[in-house]
Structure formats: structure tokens, C-alpha cells
Amino acid sequence: MQDPLKAICDDPLERRWVWISLFLAVVFGVILGFYALGNNLHPPSNVEPIDSATLHLSGEFAEDNLGVKENGDGTLTVTMVAARYGFFPPVIEVPTDTPVKFRMASADVLHGVHVPYTNAATMIVPGYVSEFTTSFPKAGKYSFLCNEYCGLGHDSMWSRLNVVEKSAGGVN
Question: Is the model's pTM score more than 0.85?
Fold first, then answer.
């Protein structure tokens, strides 16, 4: 059998490294595939479209409906809008050790959110509702940071998350 890489490169050492690289890429792909299957990792399937141009006028993402709401089962839902150049509402307060579902929509362009030192992070794609659930074990002040470049004011796009002790916690 003739080496198919011979037409591309003449040097045997170079062909050997190409084959090693291809082999490693396949091995890593198989490992990642088994890891994803074994841990039930899959792309989001609850795609929820929304009209970004009118989301602020009525419904869940209207200005009066933004913020923290109690669900009645001990969990909270935080509804936020990402728009140039901030997250609205600008300050959120949640108690520690409480499941918090974040529902976010973009009013304009692609944004991302990341809360440093926590596992809270997602992309906020225009035209869709982004959702993730987390809890915060430690009280403190955290920043919501935009981690997708969204324009000239991107570096100043942030919001504040105040995590308070559960006994002192109220909902704002």
C-alpha cells in the first residue's frame, strides 16, 4: 500500500508526524465522545425563540418583570436582559445555597455572561432565551461580566450579583 501523504510531502519524517497528529486527533475525538456519552453531555435542546426587537415591551422580559422572583418551591428565577452595554437589572441579590434559574435574553447582539469564581456562565444569543441553573455556596459580591465582544463599550459591560447568607436573604 502506498502512503497517501507521499503526494503532499516528500520527507518521511514529516509524513510520520502528520500520521501521528492524525492518530492523536482521532484518539482525542474518541475519548471526548465517550466522555460526553458517559456523562450525558449534550447540546441544549430546549431552544426557546424570542423577538429581540420587542422583548422589552411585554411579557417575561418587559422592564417591570425583570429581577428575582420566588417560585414557591424554595427556588428562585432571575430574569435579565443583556443589551449594549450592561445587564438589566444592574444589581441582583440572591441567598446562598438556593437553586437559582437564570433566564436571559439579548436585546441587540451576541453577549456572554460569566460570574468569576462560580460555575455560572452562558452565551446569550439574540433571538433566543438562554437559561441555566446554579446555586452560590458562599456569600459575597460577584460581577456579571460579558465574555463575548459586543462593541466598543464591551469592557464596561458588567452587573453586580450580591449573594447574601440565607438567613439574612430577601428577594430584591
Answer: no
Residue 171 CB contacts under 8 Å (≥ 6 apart), including other chains: 68, 69, 70, 76, 93, 94
Q: How many CB atoms lie within 10 A of CB 110?
A: 14
Q: Domain coordinates of the chain in residue numbers?
A: 4-38, 63-164
Q: How far apart, in whole angstroms, are the C-alpha atoms of residue 17 and residue 14?
A: 5
Q: What is the pLDDT of residues 8-48, one digit of tens each?
A: 777 888 888 888 999 999 999 999 999 888 887 766 666 78
Per DSSP, what are the bridge partners of residue 105? 81, 129
Q: What's domain 63-164's superfamily in CATH? A: Cupredoxins -  blue copper proteins (2.60.40.420)
Do you know the residue count of the chain?
172
CB burial of residue 171 (10 Å; 0-12, 13-18, 19+): middle
Q: What is the pLDDT of residues 92-115, one digit of tens each?
A: 999 999 999 999 999 999 999 999
> Looking at residue 162, what is its pLDDT?
96
Distances (CA, A) of 25 to 18, 31, 32, 42: 11, 10, 11, 21
Residue 16 CB neighbours (<10 A): 12
